[in-house]
Amino acid sequence: MWYTIVWVIRMxxxxxIYEAVKLIxxxxxxxxGQIAAIAGNPRWSQVxxxxxxxxxDNSVIPCHRVVNRFGETAAAxxxxxxxxxRLMLEEEGVRFDKDGRVIMSEYLWTGI
Length: 112
Known about the structure:
Layout: H1 2-10, H2 13-22, E1 30-31, H3 32-39, H4 45-53, E2 66-67, H5 82-91, H6 104-107
């Protein structure tokens, strides 16, 4: 147990965010606020957004699974434009309502 705590303490903010995002299962989404809280500071929502925008490897860090608290996808998704995030989520089985928002009652990850 103590070695896990030491490992987390040595991680920088972006590393903590990326590790939190990796926890989101396929077919689920999390909010920026959830990821901020898991990473260690619930006030980091904007930092989460920035970290995901500069995601070094979207094949390992599934940043497409992070949406805002209303279930809206990012307007300027970093890996291919605004619609690619929605397409990536739909490929995982995530459905959207008539307003283009993730159906949060069904797909919001409630892990950890």
